[in-house]
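Box 3.1 A note on notation
Throughout this textbook, protein chains are presented in two layers. The first layer is the amino acid sequence; the second is a token string describing backbone geometry. Keep the layers aligned when reading.
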Amino acid sequence: MTTHCRFCGEAVRPNTMFCPACGQIIVADAPRPQGAPPFPTTGGRRQDAPTPAQTPAELPPVPLPDVPAWARPVPPAPGGAAEPIAPPPAAAVPAPPAAPPAAPAPAASPVPGPLRTPQPAAPSPLALLLPGGARIPVDRRLVLGRQPAAGAAQRGGVPVEVIDPSRSMSRVHLVIEADPDGRATATDPGSGNGTVVVRAGTRHPLVPDVPFPLAPGDRLALGDVIVDVA
């Protein structure tokens, strides 16, 4: 004859004090003599029975940090997938200020050339004072004589006819030339009576065809005719 645990319904043998399944005292379920008092039961639970899970105490809600709108999930639109939210545009970075315009380069100054020493002005040319009082500047080739025209043409000069009553001069007696610096020379081309330059009292007879430099104050003796240099 078997009986069942009145707690869990497991079949147990008669006179079993504890249910092998749930551990409850089930001796009261055994057949008792008629008129016997019921077996006392603890009505409790075995110490080794599993303890029902305790409901944890509710914790206060923790506030969540604010989530940007662009990061919040968007519920799907009716009939379609959720549209993604584009992130907010990046803040505009101000462009660097434009560089000021470059100053124009100064104009190149002209490179100075070699210095030139100013040439002194040419001195006034010498002049010949003829016996008749004529003054002839020595600024070109002059050919002096009694009849110097033909000789001057041959030498490329200007004829200067000197009055000689004694006829002591040759037709072409003296050639005087000037240079750009205002200096002058006298050359006797081979006259009959010769030419003498008197300077400061000293006589300088001219050698034929050899130039002799003249200076202001010289006196030229052409035969018997005197011509001064001024």
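The longest strand covers residues 174-178. Helices lie at 149-155.
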